[in-house]
Amino acid sequence: MSVAALLPIAVPLVAAGLSMALLGRLRAQRAIGIAASAATLTAAVWLLIGVHHGGPVTVVVGAWEAPIGISLVADRLSAVLLVVAEVMLAGVLAFAMGRRGDERSMRFFHPVYHVLAAGVAISFLTGDLFTLFVGFEVMLMASYVLLTHRADAARVRSTITYVVVGLVASVFFLVAIALTYAATGTVDLAELASRLDTVPSSVRSLLALTTLVVFGIKAAVFPLFFWLPDSYPAAPAPVTAIFAGLLTKVGVYAILRTRTLLFAEDGPSELLLVVAGATMVAGVLGAIAQDDIKRILSFHIVSQIGYMIMGIALFTAASLAATVFYVVHHIAVKTSLFLIGGLIEDVEGTGSLRRIGGLARSRPLLAALFLPAALSLAGLPPFSGFVAKLALVEAGVSAGSWAIVGVSVTVSLLTLVSMTKIWNGAFLGEPEGPPAVAERRKLPVLSTAAAAAVVAVGLAVAAVAGPLLDYAGDTAAGLGAAVVEEAP
Amino acid sequence: MIPSLALSFFAAAALLAGFGRRLRRTAVWLALAPSVAAAATLLAHAPRVLDGEPVRESISWVPSLGVSLEFSLDGAALAMGLVVSLVGAAILAYTVWYQRDPIPLLGRLNLFAGAMFGLTVSDNLFGLFVFWELTTIVSYSLIAYDDRSPDARKAGVHALFVTALGGLVMLVGFVVLGTEAGTYRISEIAAAPPSGPAVTAALALVLAGVLTKSAQVPFHGWLPAAMAAPTPASAFLHAATMVKAGVFLAIRLAPVAMGNDVWQGVLLTAGIATMAVGGWAALRERDLKRILAYGTVAQLGLLTVLAASEATVAASVALLLAHAGFKAALFMVVGSIDKATGTRDIRELGGLRRTLPGTWVVAVAAAASMAGIPLTLGFVAKEAALDALLAASPAIAAAVAAGAVLTVAYTTRILGVFWGPERTAPSSSPAPGMTAAAALLAAAGVAFGIAPGPVEALSGSAARAAGAAAVALPAWPGPKPALWLSLGSLAAGWLAALLPIGPRRGTAAASAAFDATVDGVLGFARRATAVLQNGSLPVYLAVILATVVAVPGAALVTAAASPAGLVPAESWLQAAVGAAAAAAAVGLLALRNRLGAILLLGVVGYGMAGLFALQGAPDLALTQVLVETVTLVVFALVLGRLPERFDRPARPAVGAPIRVALALAVGVFVTGAMLSAAAGRADAPVSEAYLERSLDEGYGRNVVNVILTDFRALDTFGEIAVVATAAIGVAGLAAGIRGRSER
Question: Is residue B65 less than 8 Å (CB to CB) from chain A?
């Protein structure tokens, strides 16, 4: 079992090295990518099954037992998120491989993409606060490179915001680690969980709030979200898609993990409820003000993060389960929407709603892919977003938090408004001006198949919503004690 | 059985969407098959259901949330299900001749029929919601069917937003209602209705769904706008079935809601207002389809009024059946006229009695039922309603009679196109199939008006399922007050039709209000986003720093205990090095020369190394010195390609006082946080174990090295990946620059 927890980190890093060594040999790089995706995905599924039946798995790296060394811990939460993340990484890799042209930029794409995958896996699996920082750094550095690679001046400029904000967040993450170590003398999460009990409560809340701000920047919550809509839309389609699906969710994971494991005593948080509501509203207002597919979708990431925070803020078993389900749903649906947006840009030459139109007639396949994903994002039945939002609303109602329930429902409607804007603008009607590309381009087969597969994953989340939500409920129930338990 | 019926509609829709064009004629049969099958199945089960034995089935979906597809075929479901399948079949048949390329439309109408059928037979609040929202979405797609028309798209959006808003609010109501009842199964809630203030709140939220879906004032504006849909869709969704979903839900929830004052008050007020607004607006319209649409609004108001009280539930079901028949038939008539003459404006139409005789006969029969002329189902239902209302509440009876006057008046206006001088001559006559489909529904209205037995049984069974009493529906009520009221309103309505009520100028108030709301939200979103997302990095950083100061900083204020044993400096040398580093940092801010700034930065870094060395950590100091040196060299190399001095921005995005204040505040925060965190420590740090075990087990005297390469080797591995990736990034950026310069 411990091998399964190591592979999702080790395989991508080895693949990155091999891919780097084989620079310029695209076929070999592709083969490595496929093999690495298959291996990590298998390992993640294996881990999920193992954790599901046998409880949390702990791996002591380098045989130095924690807190001397670093331990990797896979519980239900990390296992399920890891599986979804690996599925998305594989899908987006296939999408990227299917895109036409620009082979020169693809050769660097491969190694860096593997590094990104490793960073995500480290973040989900680590049982150590400092290694979480390392995981973030690995992920972020890969993301800086993917954003700026062979970029033109405009893209570099929009990435500067992303990089500078990322660095500032990293500095404060280091400050938070230093504070934690100063107060407790350890950075091992399991050890921290028990030692924080003896720390004065005022210092504990100082630590809780500092980490919250740091992870809040990563997760793009209000008022720390502005870096996201400025930088994501500029990147190439596969890069934006995987960022949209995974990166902010790692921040949400970190908030969820720290609040349940380290600061569970704080319980429900009014502050977080306000943050959740403000994030939902700020994101959706941004989305309905936009006229470009990727910009609309980027603002929606922010808005949706608010829902996940809502579940953490309410801090009941049901609301935490809802958040876990929401994250799983969102990763699949958001990735698929960005992939479809990328396909539209590929074939139409632009994502501006003013310059495209009538795709439901000219590209019925894209319409059929977009529609379920968009309705799901808006929380309409019978899609996964409906189950996710209903779970949150039920949790909010039983907690008696009427204000956040009202906000979440209103934002749902506004989400539908902006999805309708894309549908009306891109899929119905006629383009307002001449088309951006003169010739009719064919949809790239592999990329379209990859996008369709990711959409299918989103639909599958809805189909298995019952068992999945039960799993999320078990996950939430086990969150407090998961890391403390040592597996044999 | 029940789920498979709903599924067969969806299957037909999918097949038609996928293979419709290849199937050609078979497609038509495929489109009609599910409706016919559903009708046959319902009729086969009817005897049992009418005896009060509902058919129940369920499929589990998300049990932990109470979401299941539970179905119950009781009296109300049977009545509505027959409307969906039988009226639906007639409309689908009509579509085959009406629409130029009928297959896509037939597919979507089947999709709708499946959703509506599912809504009808749902016995779970969330299951009902699933189908409810599905009808909303399909309705949008049908209104915007002619997607090249901006008006159609706008009308679709109007309907979508209003009904989706109501639906979402209703969903919260469902959650509260289900929580109070301990079950989300409608039949179980009906069997043991909960009560209390929470239930009242839940019902108030559910009302939002009822009123928006059934186009009640002030939400009614979407229904006339929805006339942008193809006429068969208008007949099916916006007359016969979907718009009745709200009323249907009110009847379904009657056992828990009927005694509630808020529920009843809102339904009665909205219903009466809707009757008045809809009837009056119908008289001011000149487009046949929009007259019918406002007529539907008015009739929905009447249905809402009837669904509000126990005494009139049975009559409301009877009127719902009657309305489905005559309104669908009249829409088909209007579609035929439109197709034959190319216009729907009553000012351009006349004398059609002679040119379109078949259509005329159908129109007269259907209109008779709408106006409530004896020997039609419309008359029977309205008579039963008035009779019950006169006993319960004469004031409401009077309002209903007044509404009937308006109905008769606009019905007269509509029939006017068949009399008088010929104006626009038909270029073709409607296909016999179209007239036959409409004739079937119109004839049913007359037949059940003469022999209302089946309707009486159906409405009685539906009323009993809703916990209300059945009422007798005689074909001829005999001389009673209700009859005089009916006949009086017929006469008054006929006279009212002669009044010169001019056409409306400009857009309807409800439409304008919707447009204003959308524009307002959009404008607000733009303004808010311009403020929140202003694109300035200095502003973003200021917000982050301010958040750090405000959020954890607030906790620090309470945490700030004066740490015991705090010494300003351990030696004069330490104080001097610290002061030098601090002075260099401050000086850095004032400097505009790049080289000087970099050198001062180096002073800060070496100062840190000095502090480490003085603290007794030569290994750390060594690392720091190496990093500083490399950084300085790299900076110096880059400097050759940059201007000598920093530009001072003419108008900085964040003013100097704010920057200074933030910098100081963050500095104070980090220092204070470090002091209080260190003061709070109770346990021995792990570093003691490092020192202990470094040599014996890690085989190294330099503890930093052993930590990096052994104790925490995974971190180092990760950081190596970071450095390697950064190298790729630099290469990539350089490639980008080269690529640009080549161009």
Answer: yes
